[in-house]
């Protein structure tokens, strides 16, 4: 209860500060006409969504990621007054959606000026309620994000539309290599059984046509519920008898239960793929995804 009140107060401070900021800058509740010259200012909640924007814009814009550390949980992030200022000055903002980073939508709503918002889950994927929020692991999504950004940036700066289109096509060609990697993996892994600790990597596993043996367990973990004892026992037996080809672990989340599953897998020489939910330091979206697919190909040979 205390934590909830603190978060509510922090939001009040951020929104009040944003209101004062807009007043101090002489901006009113009346929407300002969109500019057609100068740099485009783009802001995103998650750092890897900044990659396609950066590739498209080049020197024609600025890209700011509000979360740029792998140690920050986007669900629990509390935006700062500086975040509010950045959003207020942005032409376009992009969020993942599906409840993952809803705080960005609140900042954009508080800024009743010119900032446009793209919600990947709602505007691009049309994700149904309860759908898997880890959309960046579906390699068909980022190309759609790229194409929409080209369209939006071109509408903001028509004179540079040809450049944005050309840059976007180059980035799409690089993204296509991820789908090629995935296709190659599918040829060897299709139909095999896999165990997971969380549904972070599920889009890849589904596209590989693998069978996830413990979706009920993963759903409990996702919703913060205690896993069912029967599910735990079944998973332990499956690892002990090597009934799965791989264990996929989100290495950013640890617990006694996950540690036990890892030890069982190691004991029975069941391959383990360690993935992350957030962008590792020193990587971009393409290098991050490529390295994980390469690791998967290596351990499942």
Low-confidence stretches: 1-6, 20-33
Q: What is the chains' assembly state? A: single chain
- Shape designation: globular
Q: Which sequence of SSEs, written as H and E, runs from N to C? A: HEHEHEHEHHHEHEHHEHEH
Distance between the termini: 50 Å
Largest sheet: 4 strands, parallel
Number of strands: 8
In short:
The protein is an alpha/beta fold.
List the topology elements.
Blueprint: H1 2-24, E1 40-46, H2 50-57, E2 61-67, H3 81-88, E3 92-95, H4 102-110, E4 116-119, H5 120-125, H6 141-156, H7 161-189, E5 193-196, H8 202-207, E6 211-212, H9 215-222, H10 229-240, E7 246-250, H11 256-267, E8 272-275, H12 285-299
Parallel strand pairs: 1-2, 1-3, 3-4, 5-6, 5-7, 7-8
Helix pairs in contact: 1-3, 2-6, 2-7, 6-7, 7-12, 10-11
What would you say this structure looks like, in words?
- With 301 residues, the chain is α/β, with parallel strands linked by helices.
- The protein is built from 12 helices and 8 strands.
- Strands 2-1-3-4 form a 4-stranded parallel beta sheet, with helices on both faces.
- α6 packs antiparallel against α7 (161-189).
- The chain is globular and about 65 Å long.
- The N and C termini lie far apart (50 Å).
- The model is unreliable at 1-6 and 20-33 (pLDDT under 50).
């Amino acid at each position: 209860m205390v934590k909830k009140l603190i978060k509510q107060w922090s939001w009040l401070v951020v929104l009040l500060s944003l209101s004062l900021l807009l007043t101090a800058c002489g901006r009113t509740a009346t929407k300002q006409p969109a500019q057609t010259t100068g740099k485009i200012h783009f802001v995103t909640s998650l750092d890897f969504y900044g990659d396609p924007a950066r590739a498209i814009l080049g020197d024609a814009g600025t890209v700011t990621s509000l979360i740029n550390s792998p140690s920050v949980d986007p669900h629990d992030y509390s935006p700062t007054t500086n975040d509010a200022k950045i959003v207020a000055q942005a032409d376009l903002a992009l969020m993942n959606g599906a409840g993952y980073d809803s705080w960005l939508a609140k900042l954009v709503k508080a800024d009743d000026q010119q900032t446009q918002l793209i919600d990947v889950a709602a505007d691009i994927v049309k994700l149904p309620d309860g759908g898997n929020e880890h959309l960046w692991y579906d390699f068909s999504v980022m190309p759609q994000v790229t194409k929409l950004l080209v369209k939006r940036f071109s509408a903001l700066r028509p004179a540079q539309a040809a450049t944005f289109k050309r840059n976007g096509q180059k980035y799409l060609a690089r993204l296509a290599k991820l789908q090629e990697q995935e296709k190659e993996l599918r040829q060897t892994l299709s139909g095999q059984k896999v165990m997971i600790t969380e549904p972070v990597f599920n889009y890849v596993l589904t596209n590989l046509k693998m069978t996830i043996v413990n979706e009920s367990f993963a759903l409990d973990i996702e919703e913060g519920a205690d896993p069912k004892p029967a599910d735990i026992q079944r998973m332990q037996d499956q690892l002990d008898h090597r009934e799965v080809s791989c264990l996929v672990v989100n290495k950013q989340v640890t617990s006694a239960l996950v540690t036990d599953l890892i030890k069982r897998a190691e004991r029975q020489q069941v391959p383990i793929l360690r993935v992350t939910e957030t962008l590792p330091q020193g990587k971009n979206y393409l290098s991050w995804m490529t390295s994980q697919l390469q690791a998967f190909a290596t351990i499942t040979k």
